[in-house]
Design goal:
Elements: H1 3-32, E1 35-43, E2 46-48, E3 52-53, E4 59-61, E5 65-68, E6 73-78, E7 83-86, E8 91-100, E9 105-121, E10 130-133, E11 137-150, E12 155-168, E13 171-176, E14 180-181, H2 213-216
Parallel strand pairs: 9-10
Antiparallel strand pairs: 1-4, 1-6, 2-3, 2-5, 5-8, 6-7, 7-9, 8-9, 9-11, 10-11, 11-12, 12-13, 12-14
Length: about 220
């Protein structure tokens, strides 16, 4: 084989390798952007990271960051029937989702809540699939409806039905229906000690523009 033929073979081989690499990258990008749910309703301004405002009917994908303004709120329904209501001035990352059995349920569904008020009602996926993280806590879901208030220093959870395993400060415990937990000024005993064993919390004093979990509770 002369030099010209060898160069031609090398060029063709390089083009083939490049084409395969592009195809693999495209497949990875497609997987990352695969729809995992749909925005059911939006009030006020709600945006996605790098994608501008979202509206009812828009799809959401793994890895997206959803943010609401001071007067904004939204409800997202996921492919397995899980619903998540997002209150005002909130931020959530749809971190990691893995489909199971023909994309009707999730093998893994992880949410990172940075701040704000949220309400979850889990869907048809196995309850071990769900994981919720905040700056101060981790929740494992055992089939439930629950609301949360999240700041960078504190997380409180109120369980309406089912059970949540609430881990905070290196300690984990089960929070049952009708119970609340989290380190908060209202979540302490008469001696002022933090109580995270699951006691009812008083309703928030205000519910301005759905900034509290009370505003997200079903009527």
């Amino acid at each position: 084989m002369n030099d010209r033929s060898a160069n031609a073979v090398s060029i063709k081989l390089g083009i083939m390798i490049f084409a395969v690499a592009v195809a693999l990258l495209g497949a990875s990008a497609s997987l990352a952007a695969e729809m995992i749910g749909t925005v059911s309703s939006v009030n006020g301004e709600v945006t996605r990271g790098g994608g501008g405002a979202i509206k009812a009917g828009d799809s959401v994908s793994q890895g997206e960051v959803i943010k609401s303004s001071s007067g904004g709120s939204a409800k997202i329904t996921f492919s397995d029937g899980t619903s998540m209501s997002v209150g005002s001035s909130a931020q959530v990352t749809l971190s990691h989702f893995v489909y199971a059995d023909k994309k009707k349920t999730f093998e893994k569904a992880s949410f990172d809540l940075a701040k704000g008020a949220f309400r979850f009602a889990t869907g048809n996926s196995d309850k071990s699939a769900y994981e919720v993280k905040t700056p101060t806590s981790t929740l494992s879901v055992r089939g439930t409806v629950f609301t949360m208030n999240v700041t960078d220093k504190n997380t409180t959870v109120n369980v309406q039905s089912g059970t949540v395993v609430f881990c905070q400060g290196g300690k984990c415990h089960s929070v049952e229906a009708g119970q609340s937990a989290g380190e908060d000024s209202s979540d302490s005993d008469q001696n002022g000690q933090s109580n995270t064993t699951g006691m009812p919390l008083p309703a928030p004093k205000t519910q301005e523009q759905c900034a509290s979990v009370d505003c997200l509770n079903p009527r």
